[in-house]
Specification:
Cytochrome p450, 5-stranded mixed sheet, 19 helices, 10 strands, binds protoporphyrin IX containing FE
């Protein structure tokens, strides 16, 4: 049976879940025409991919991001290591920044590395994300949430995304990194452009825009890194810089790439988690009232949001040798997309998977991935979402959506509402 799945269409973006169901049912390993990606949609098979980094390499992440820079991922030729247009873009970049584009390509960050390199990088960056460090952030996260809500709830109608779920994680990650508060808007702009340009925009990429964002982003961080070398502070950039040189250490380019990854990985995802979660909860008034009035239900609500409509729908892997999944052969060097969001709706794993249910057992959901690349920021994201919702629910007795339709962010990898206009009854 042929499956009509187009991850780049607006219709799919509005609701990809019936398409994932069709894939799981009829084509659990589906080769996408054109780009030639192999989509893996069943829970068991997604888990298999994530458990076997020796067969399914994360180098694909670097390749796709770099290649996407030139042509837009849906148009690229998977048989080429680096698309010539991407090389051209990076050569331009090198002129203004004074470093070799090949070095940039050859310096994958933790998310795009395989063992043993991955082990080394993860060992270093883990230091910034210990449970103790994250727990210590709670009072400040709460204060940031309260201040944003003070402003937002002065109005009867507001956009929750631009006024709450964007500023909260952007402010937190910028403070964790130790970058200047007045640049928050720039961070958001840079990470938006990088995400929509380099990770699967529907509309293809605009290399000039992307190049400009990347240049600004890199120039800013290079300067920040340089400053911390001269004058270390009590922030993550300083800790990373301190880890440069020596044995288990980051190179300067690795420090830069990690800072960039954190900014992108740590912002949009948490924003989308909160947006998707609230959209789902608003469809279930009885559950909304229970979660709103019982803070103990906020953590299970956040986990169910990760399962039911996760911010990271799928990511890239690449076969290191000929492989077979669910009886389908995948040749060496193929791009494989494990669809986390589809695995999380697989009835073989979750009872009535299409029902949003804050009481369900969500253990085993793949919203943060699995295995060696399991999300480094999971505890931070959980903290931000929990505290953000706790504070919101203290202040409102009712929330009502103002737009019947939801417009989603411009990426097939990431999912979340661009805006969420609401009217509130305050407590
Ligand atoms: C709700 C929010 C988030 C979601 C849904 C999410 C999801 C994910 C997923 C699915 C992966 C696995 C990637 C793979 O297997 O290739 C991942 C990895 C990662 N995430 Fe998150 N993430 C979130 C928030 C954050 C935050 C707040 C940070 C940092 C501040 C962060 C930093 C990272 C990093 C550095 C990795 C790579 C880890 C590695 O390769 O070892 N994420 N995330």
């Amino acid at each position: 049976m042929t499956v009509s799945y187009d991850p780049f269409s607006t219709e799919t973006r509005a609701n990809p879940y019936p398409h994932y169901a069709e894939l799981r049912q009829s084509a659990p390993v589906h080769r996408l025409e054109g780009a030639g990606f192999h989509l893996v949609s069943r829970y068991e098979d997604v888990l298999f991919v994530l458990k076997h980094p020796e067969l399914f390499s994360s180098k694909a992440m670097q390749r796709m991001i770099m290649s996407g820079m030139g042509v837009g991922i849906q148009n690229m030729d998977p048989s080429q290591d680096f698309d010539p247009k991407a090389v051209q873009v990076l050569t331009e970049l090198s002129k203004s920044l004074g470093f070799n584009p090949v070095e940039l390509m050859m310096t994958p960050s933790v998310i795009a590395s395989d063992p043993p390199r991955h082990e080394r990088l993860r060992g270093i960056v883990n230091r910034g994300f210990t449970p103790r460090r994250i727990a210590a952030l709670e009072p400040r996260v709460r204060q940031i949430a309260r201040e944003a809500l003070d402003r937002m709830l002065q109005k009867d109608a507001f956009d929750l995304v631009s006024e709450f779920t964007i500023p909260l994680p952007v402010t937190v990650i910028a403070e964790v990194l130790g970058v200047e508060p007045d640049r928050y808007a720039d961070f958001k702009r840079w990470s938006d452009t990088l995400i929509s340009g380099a990770t699967g925009s529907a509309s293809g990429t605009q290399p000039a825009l992307l190049l400009a964002a990347f240049q600004e982003f890199n120039a800013y961080f290079m300067e920040q890194i340089e400053r911390r070398r001269r004058d270390p502070k009590d922030d993550l950039i300083s800790a990373l810089v301190a880890a440069e040189g020596g044995d288990a250490a980051l190179t300067p380019m690795e420090t830069l790439m990690f800072a960039v990854l954190l900014l992108v990985a740590g912002n949009e995802t948490t924003t989308n988690l909160m947006g998707n979660g609230l959209l789902a909860l608003l469809e279930e008034p009885e559950q909304f009232d229970r979660v709103r009035t019982d803070p103990a239900l906020v953590p299970p609500f956040v986990e169910e949001a990760l399962r039911y409509d996760g911010p990271v729908q799928m990511l890239f892997r690449e076969t290191t040798q000929d492989a077979e999944i669910a009886g389908t052969s995948i040749p060496k060097g193929s791009i494989v997309l494990p669809i986390f969001a589809s695995a999380n709706r697989d009835a073989a794993q979750f009872v009535e998977p299409d029902r949003f249910d804050v009481d369900r057992d969500t253990r085993g959901h793949l919203g943060f991935g699995f295995g060696i690349h399991f999300c480094l920021g999971a505890s931070l994201a959980r903290l931000e979402a929990r505290v953000g919702f706790e504070e919101l629910f203290k202040r409102v007795s009712k929330l009502q959506r103002l737009d019947p339709e939801v417009e989603y962010v411009d990426s097939f990898l990431l999912r979340g509402p661009r805006q969420l206009r609401l009217a509130a009854d305050r407590v």
